[in-house]
Design goal:
single chain, 266 residues, Rossmann fold, 6-stranded mixed beta sheet, 4-stranded antiparallel beta sheet, 11 helices
Length: 266
């Protein structure tokens, strides 16, 4: 596919799902190269989040396949896909609300080390894991709120905590569904810088659903455009953004009327 670099870390082949008679995702084939960041865009209702849910296992496909480094994972659950290296951050925060900020991240570290879930016994003898969890909190700027209950955090800090949890799981595939949604102008740069640093490492494959075009311009190696559940454009950002069909139908940008009239009479 256009824009892929190297072997596909994750791919969909003819992927689709129907709800009754409606095809929410319809025959979408795309490859995501190792070490790249792909932005998935389109108007509301285009199928972006549904496509994410099919890739990460929250939904079971009606048709087609999902492959992780060539392995067919179509029938695996979301938990099984997570264990194989797919990490997903949701549009709405997905935390343990009654646990502290530090405990949320520690559980993710604990899970990655297959150390079980007896938290009190676990942390008494594993200072190294405590330090790992604290490093992730430092990276997202939450070290000062480590003892706060997660449910009491402001929305922006909940998003930061979710990113810290995702980082703690150390997945090979990182999926962000509108990571800056609901954030204040001051909070957005922190999340974007985290994603930029993850990309700069070069060992992660990142998929990003985002409406803010300045964010996409600054981060994406490639843009995939969905509309009515179908893939309608796929390529380098400059090429996709310059496409008339994308500008008019999918990004809300209109060519001047004179240009359209000239085209009609050409």
């Amino acid at each position: 596919m256009n824009g892929s670099v190297g072997a596909a870390a994750l791919s969909s082949i003819g992927l689709g799902i129907r709800f009754g008679g409606h095809a929410a995702v319809d025959d979408v084939s795309a490859e995501f190269g190792a070490g790249t960041l792909t932005a998935i865009v389109g108007p509301n209702g285009a199928g972006k989040t549904t496509y994410f849910n099919l890739l990460s296992g929250q939904l079971r496909a009606s048709a087609g396949a999902v492959r992780l480094k060539g392995e067919d994972i179509t029938r695996l659950s979301a938990a099984q896909r997570t264990s194989k290296g797919i990490g997903r951050a949701f549009q709405l925060t997905n935390l343990f609300p009654r646990l502290s900020v530090a405990e949320n991240v520690r559980l993710a570290v604990q899970s990655r080390h297959s150390a079980g879930f007896n938290m009190l016994a676990m942390w008494r003898g594993r200072r190294d894991l405590i330090e790992q969890a604290d490093r992730y909190l430092e990276e997202v700027g939450l070290a000062g709120r480590r003892n706060d209950v997660a449910s009491k955090l402001p929305h922006g800090d909940k998003r930061k905590l979710e990113v810290a949890i995702l980082m703690a799981l150390e997945p090979e595939i990182l999926m962000f569904d509108e990571p800056t949604a609901g954030m204040s102008v001051d909070e957005v740069p922190v999340i974007l810088e985290l994603i930029r640093r993850l990309k700069a490492r070069g060992d992660k494959t990142i998929l990003l659903v985002e409406h803010k075009m300045d964010v996409i311009h600054s981060l994406a190696d490639r843009i995939v455009v969905l509309h009515n559940g179908r893939l309608v454009a796929d390529g380098l950002p400059k090429d996709v953004m310059a496409s008339a069909i994308v500008q008019e139908a999918y990004l809300g940008m209109k060519r001047p009327v004179v240009q359209r009239e000239e085209a009609m009479h050409a």
